[in-house]
Amino acid sequence: MTSCTALIVAAGRGSRFGGPLPKQYALLAGQPVLRRTIAAFQAAPAVDRIRVVIGAGDDAHYEAATQGLGLPAPVPGGVSRQQSVLNGLEALAGSAPDRVAIHDAARPFVRRADIDACLAAVSADGIDGAILGIPLADTLKRVGAGHTISETVPRRDLWRAQTPQVFRFAPLLAAHRAAASLGADEATALTDDAAVAERAGLKVVMVPGSGDNRKITTADDLAFDFMETRTALGFDVHGFAPGSAVMLGGVAIPHTHALAGHSDADVALHALTDAVLGTIGAGDIGKHFPPSDPQWRGASSDRFLRHAVELVTRRGGRIVHLDITIVCEAPKVGPHREAMVKSIAAIADVSPERVSVKATTTEGLGFTGRREGIAAQAIATVELPGS
């Protein structure tokens, strides 16, 4: 089985970042940037080991940032990035992995799919390395003295290089050893591992990456909402009772019966409410609106869903999508679908495009098939600030 070690380079000082800590140890949504970067590689099944290269005097910061992760001892960095990477590669020489993925500690947003894509590219015959990158979209200008534009640089075939940069281990180690003997000016021109590999004649390919894989450079780069996506399921059932209409999704639909319940028994809104509450771990509808409490007798269920949405909003979150499936033989949902979508969207304060209402039957089977009641299943998707 092919082995791969992630070598995370965290030895830089980040002079442009400022602040009391190097940027890799600064907090991003409550966690050190380095810890989030490590977590991204721990989630990649093809990466079987992680080593971190750190700067002199950063041992305490490193221990605090990686507590409980079970990582091996960090590797001391050098005075330049190239030397830091070489130190890391030399530390791996004893185990000699088949591949090594070198990644900047200050890129915590790298996606697992992009890591996998680089690893897959290096697995191809004749390919020594693969790096993430994105094509340049902006027009480039060369600027001289006094900020005077001297020329427009064609951007065709130009890409912005990112990390990880994945290589076959042995050729890259040899390339870095050779680069270590260069003069200061020539070594400075080798700004990433791909440049080191190119100088050694290795074949390196570009793998399309993502703009999300941005690098933390200044303190302002931390001043944004780091959102995570959550989904949760809701399910509810109500039996039929005497009446002339049922409430579904906030819409009164004429029928031979009503739905039985302590409130207005809107089975669709009840399922949606439980789904939304589930995304924030806030229990179920009965916890917030207990049927033993007389104040909720006959209450309109839009109050329940609106309350759940408000709880998400208070957490700094937002509703991304609400999906509901109503299970019944009758009444027919189709003629009322659009009205239900508009109703739910208004209650949740989202656009109708973020609401889906579907219906199905059980082909005459079970209690819904016997026309004894209606069931509903809902899925809520929300975005919340990461923790």
Write a compact overview of the structure shown.
This protein has 387 residues and is an alpha/beta fold. It contains 12 helices and 18 strands.
Entry keywords:
about 375 residues, 7-stranded mixed sheet, alpha/beta, Spore Coat Polysaccharide Biosynthesis Protein SpsA, Chain A, 60s Ribosomal Protein L30, Chain: A, 2 domains
Furnish the topology, listing elements before pairings:
Blueprint: E1 4-10, E2 27-28, E3 31-32, H1 33-42, E4 49-54, H2 59-65, E5 75-76, H3 81-92, E6 99-104, H4 112-122, E7 129-135, E8 140-143, E9 149-153, E10 159-168, H5 169-179, H6 184-188, H7 193-199, E11 204-208, E12 227-242, E13 245-248, E14 251-254, E15 257-259, H8 267-279, H9 285-288, H10 302-314, E16 318-327, H11 337-348, E17 355-360, H12 366-369, E18 373-385
Parallel strand pairs: 1-4, 1-6, 4-5, 7-11, 16-17
Antiparallel strand pairs: 2-3, 6-10, 7-10, 8-9, 12-15, 12-18, 13-14, 16-18
Helix pairs in contact: 3-5, 5-7, 8-10
State the low-pLDDT regions, or none.
Answer: none
The averaged pLDDT comes out at 91
Major sheet: 7 strands, mixed
Number of helices: 12
Number of domains: 2
**Helicity level:** 25-40%
**Cross-sheet strand order for the largest sheet:** 5-4-1-6-10-7-11
N-end to C-end Cα span = 35 Å
What is the chain-wise order of helices and strands? Answer: EEEHEHEHEHEEEEHHHEEEEEHHHEHEHE
